[in-house]
Specification:
- This protein is 30% helix and 27% strand.
- With 336 residues, it is of the alpha/beta class.
- Helix 2 (103-113) packs across helix 3 and helix 3 packs across helix 4.
- Bound molecules: adenosine-5'-triphosphate (ATP) and magnesium ion (MG).
- Residues 54-55, 93, 169 line the site of magnesium ion.
Length: 336
């Protein structure tokens, strides 16, 4: 499965993985044939709830776990070809940073492991430390580092050897807003230089701000890979109406025009499917004694798409009609 005929930087095809239970020989399949791919210069987000299988997939990509079946290719080479790992940077979910080493020593050690030439290693270590805002801590033992500082050190290690493919398991975990901004800028800069980035996260706004596409995984299966541009097109032509003073039951005659209805206290929040229907809905609201507070274009967030996918609330018949709409807004949708 290659898009556009170009070679994918990362290609995961039908990966399955089972784990044996602690107490029995029965094994449980946690990945049921996971497939997706990322192209050069792309940022692909890996989005899914706890236990969905993100870390397991990432470990398989890195060759730290062996898949039961399926395949992984990096730069067109199979997993068995480890030479390609030189071009890959990796941030584990819980990076282990040797506590008795200073940050500089740790990064120098990583540079040596990655065969960074000795004459550039020292300056490269300084460079990544300062990129991650750790220059003041360069000569401290990492034992005393805070969670966010360790995360920054882990990221410094991941980008040290200027990888062409960066694989990050929850890169924003434990970071304060400044740290998040720093990491976001670093990733966008790398993308600008043609690098490919694959990262998992629960932080939807970070994902929304960074990714070209998001791969949504649930219960060990990819439900959907969605382009961020596509997410915004999903709601194209839909209109949001906020109104007050009208019981939801009054809406029955126009309910067919609605993509979703949410109630938040006195206010009702409607998403009308098409611009042409807005006049009828507004008129109906006025006739029912409602006060219309706001009418505006609807832009679903990645969060709404995510929640819809996770809750399995895609409206199938609408999909088959060639239009994709999402039902099932989280309640309190009027807070925007
Ligand atoms: N070594 C293991 N032995 C047994 N089960 C495992 C093992 N590693 C992971 N699992 C199970 O596989 C499933 C997926 O776990 P995984 O760590 O990949 O999820 P995740 O999507 O990374 O979750 P989180 O968001 O919490 O990091 C879970 O049900 C987990 O219990
Ligand atoms: Mg995980």
């Amino acid at each position: 499965m290659q898009r556009g005929g170009t070679m994918e930087v990362l290609q995961v095809d039908g990966v399955k993985k089972s784990f044996r239970g602690d107490m029995s020989f029965a094994s449980r399949e946690v990945l049921h044939g996971v497939s997706f791919s990322a192209g050069a210069g792309e940022i692909l987000g890996f989005l899914g709830p706890n236990g969905a299988g993100k870390t397991t997939t990432i470990k398989i990509i890195l060759g730290l776990l062996r898949p039961d079946s399926g395949s992984v290719q990096i730069f067109g080479k199979p997993l068995a070809d480890r030479s390609v790992m030189k071009r890959v940077g990796y941030l584990p979910e819980n990076p282990y940073i040797y506590p008795h080493l200073t940050l500089s020593e740790f990064l120098r050690f990583c540079a040596d492991l990655s065969d960074v030439p000795a004459n550039v290693a020292a300056s490269r270590v300084r460079e990544v430390s300062s990129l991650l805002g750790l220059e003041e801590h360069a000569n401290r033992r990492t034992k005393g580092f805070s969670k966010g500082m360790l995360q920054r050190a882990g990221l410094a290690q991941a980008i040290l050897d200027e990888p062409d493919l960066l694989i990050l398991d929850e890169p924003f975990s434990g970071l304060d807003p400044i740290g998040r901004k720093t990491v976001k800028d670093i990733l966008l800069d790398l993308k600008g230089r043609g690098k490919t980035i694959f990262f998992s996260s629960h932080i939807l706004p970070d994902m929304e701000a960074l990714c070209d596409r998001a791969c949504i995984i649930k219960d060990g299966a990819v439900i959907r890979t969605v382009g961020l541009a596509e997410v915004f097109r999903i709601g194209e032509g839909m209109v949001e109406i906020t109104a007050r003073g009208c019981p939801v039951s009054e809406l029955d005659p126009v309910s067919g025009y609605m993509d979703s209805v949410a109630v938040n206290g006195e206010e009702i929040f409607l998403v009308v499917r098409k611009r042409e229907l807005v006049r009828t809905v507004v008129q109906h609201l006025y006739n029912s004694g409602a006060e219309v507070l706001n009418v505006s274009n609807h832009h679903p967030s990645l969060e709404e798409v995510f929640m819809s996918e996770i809750n399995g609330k895609i409206t199938e018949e609408r999909e088959s009609a060639g239009i994709q709409h999402y039902a099932g807004h989280a309640t309190g949708g009027g807070e925007r």
